[in-house]
Amino acid sequence: MSLEDLKNALPDYAKDLKLNLSSLARETDLDDQKKWGSFLATAYAVGEPTVLRAIRAEVEGKMDPDAANAAKAAAAIMGMNNVYYRFIHLSKNKEYGTLPARLRMNLLANPGVDKADFELWSLAVSAVNGCGLCIDSHEAELRKHGLTSVQIQAAVRIAAVVNAVAQVLAAESAV
């Protein structure tokens, strides 16, 4: 399965999603590793099988296997962190923010790829998972690494479309 197959799997009412998938695949504001890593990390974050298979197939040969692993790792660690830090952010009891997380996050120190790439993928997954605290943290780190608003927005646009495609396909498979 490829990105083209994924577009073909979408119903007619999701035509905008098809068009967005095409334009994002041609995105030039991000280098290929950042772009395809954003696709892969968010596909793992949403976990919808058709989306995941198509994006994995599309990414193969376009990303170094270690980078692909790091993108998957970003989805994994953010799956945990986004829930935890969203709780910290949303809880009225601010004491939770003063307590140590006591969750292993060693990956963040050495993700195995350029730190900016990993931060970008983590931001994209955080956008899908709706963690404002994580979004702000990763965005600040990306700024330190010199990424522009346009580049950051590109990764979030990828996340938004991958998420929407997954929702449509999940809904269609349920009826």
UniProtKB/TrEMBL annotation:
Disulfide bonds: C131-C134
Protein origin, superkingdom: Bacteria
EC number(s) stated in the UniProt entry for this protein: 1.11.1.28
A GO molecular-function descriptor: hydroperoxide reductase activity
Reactions mediated catalytically: N(6)-[(R)-dihydrolipoyl]-L-lysyl-[lipoyl-carrier protein] + a hydroperoxide = N(6)-[(R)-lipoyl]-L-lysyl-[lipoyl-carrier protein] + an alcohol + H2O
Pfam families, A to Z: CMD (PF02627)
Residue ranges of every copy of the Carboxymuconolactone decarboxylase-like domain listed in the record: 95-173
Any GO BP: response to oxidative stress
Protein keywords: Antioxidant, Disulfide bond, Oxidoreductase, Peroxidase, Redox-active center
Residues forming the catalytic site: C131 (proton donor), C134 (cysteine sulfenic acid (-soh) intermediate)
Annotated NCBIfam families: ahpD, ahpD_dom
Cited HAMAP family: AhpD (MF_01676)
Entry function: Antioxidant protein with alkyl hydroperoxidase activity. Required for the reduction of the AhpC active site cysteine residues and for the regeneration of the AhpC enzyme activity.
Protein family per UniProt: Belongs to the AhpD family.
Protein known as: Alkyl hydroperoxide reductase AhpD
Organism the protein comes from: Maricaulis salignorans
The organism's taxonomic lineage, starting at the top: Bacteria, Pseudomonadati, Pseudomonadota, Alphaproteobacteria, Maricaulales
